[in-house]
Specification:
Distance between the termini: 39 Å
Radius of gyration: 18 Å
Low-confidence stretches: none
Helix content: 55-70%
Number of helices: 10
Mean pLDDT: 94
Length: 254
């Protein structure tokens, strides 16, 4: 529980005033990435439900997207921008890594952040219009399950970095545990809270394969650029994984 709370404090801006102390094996909290996503997902669902009584679906979609950024302190969206600025600068590896650490906003960063936000708003709006807002709850879950693929048998091109506490630290057992409990969690919530037919649940669960496949391809692409994975890459992966999940849901319910 302490490890999960510590991860929640690290990955979100949810106010939890608990001192969990120093954990030498904090990397083992990778298993709880999807669970952190579920906490965020529940909050987004509650915010969306409340907004649904006040605003139209479009404004509700904007508020949900904004809430996602606020709840994470912009941590992952920052990683998205830094990653696009660096990887698509067409410089050498060392210069790319230097660009990632630069706090200034480049054109690639601006475009990436803008289009990801627009896509999220658009897909969430469509999903709400189709009466499936509760499926937005699983967006941060699947996004964070997918990103752990980038912590499995990977290396960091930097000697020091925020992401180094996770990169290359995921074991096969931890990976399988995260996948299994995510499947169980989604199935139980969808079936018993929202009375969802099993055929729809199975379709939703297939998004796990899609997002994991994307991260496998993304990993290969990143390795060709900088020979490893950084913390910014992890944040970028979460944002892109969430968009892919929303796109998939949009397609299966459209």
């Amino acid at each position: 529980m302490k490890r999960f709370i510590a991860l929640l404090q690290f990955m979100t801006r949810i106010p939890i005033n608990i001192d969990v102390g120093f954990d030498e094996e904090f990397h083992k909290s990778i298993t709880y990435f999807p669970l952190v996503g579920f906490v965020l997902g529940v909050l987004l669902f509650l915010i969306g439900t409340i907004c649904g009584y006040i605003f139209d679906p479009f404004v509700t979609a904007i508020v949900i997207t904004l809430s996602s950024v606020v709840l994470t302190g912009g941590l992952h969206i920052d990683g998205l921008g830094d990653t696009f600025d660096a990887l698509y600068s067409y410089r050498d590896k060392e210069k790319m890594l230097e660009i990632m650490k630069d706090s200034r906003l480049g054109t690639n960063s601006l475009l990436a952040v803008m289009f990801v936000i627009l896509l999220k708003v658009g897909f969430i709006y469509s999903i709400i219009n189709n009466g499936y807002m509760w499926l937005v709850m699983f967006m941060p879950v699947i996004g964070r399950l997918g990103v752990i693929r980038l912590t499995y048998k990977t290396v960091s091109p930097r000697a020091k970095g925020m992401g180094n506490m996770f990169i290359g630290k995921l074991t096969t057992g931890m990976f399988l545990t995260a996948i299994v409990y995510t499947i169980v969690l989604i199935t139980l919530v969808a079936r018993f809270m929202f009375l969802t037919p099993f055929e729809i649940i199975i379709k939703v669960l297939l998004s796990i394969i899609l997002v994991l496949l994307f991260n496998q391809i993304f990993k290969g692409h990143v390795y060709k650029k900088i020979d490893g994975v950084t913390g910014d890459i992890l944040g970028c992966s979460i944002e892109l994984g969430e968009v892919i999940y929303l796109l998939y849901i949009y397609l299966i319910i459209g």
